[in-house]
Amino acid sequence: MKRPxxxxxxxxxxxxxGRRFARVYxxxxxxxxxxxxxPVLLPPMDSPEHVEQALGVVDAVIVPxxxxxxxxxxxxxxxxxxxxxxxxxxxFKFGRELVRSAVRQAKPFLGxxxxxxxxxxxxxxxxxxxxxxxxxxxxxxxxxPGEDAHHEVSIDDGSLLSKVCGTGGEVNSAHHQAVxxxxxxxKVVAHSKDGLVEAVEGEGRxxxxxxxxxxxxxxxxxxxxxxxxxxxxxx
Length: 235
Hints:
Strand content: 25-35%
Distance between the termini: 10 Å
């Protein structure tokens, strides 16, 4: 039986010698393979044809975690804070078009952390730029780079996400921004106890964004089970 091909959008990085390269953490492609898919990396390129050609060879798309989106994309002035880390411009532009094209083509899609926020912004939504400043009574969503916080999420019963993950549980957390206003065609389907958005989804198909990192949670409904569901939806 042929495995569905799952495209994982890659981040852009720079070597000590100044050479740019694409990278994806191992846990993403391990989770795709464990879920029955064949992972392929989609490197960011400043080329409109690359987006369409990439989508032509994959059955589903994952946009992983990353840095902060430009606030101008959702009509806000940048809120300066020590946690601000700007996303690579080429990655952002490539990812934005990848999201919009994947949505138009109804490709099964999963956005994770940055990917969840990119999905929202690419479809006209807005973000909370810094939880610590703008939501002072929030639960802890981020400790420090490389160390996850953990908190409970509540998932709306009857949502696609609830059919995959159940109606809640503990997730990992490593973000300082969050969805504020959902984008076109997206519905908020999960929250943390402080009311912050933890997941969005589209109607009638597998179009999901989650704020946590299922690729780092291992086997389980809220972890690799979510990535397996994406693979199954693309088969």
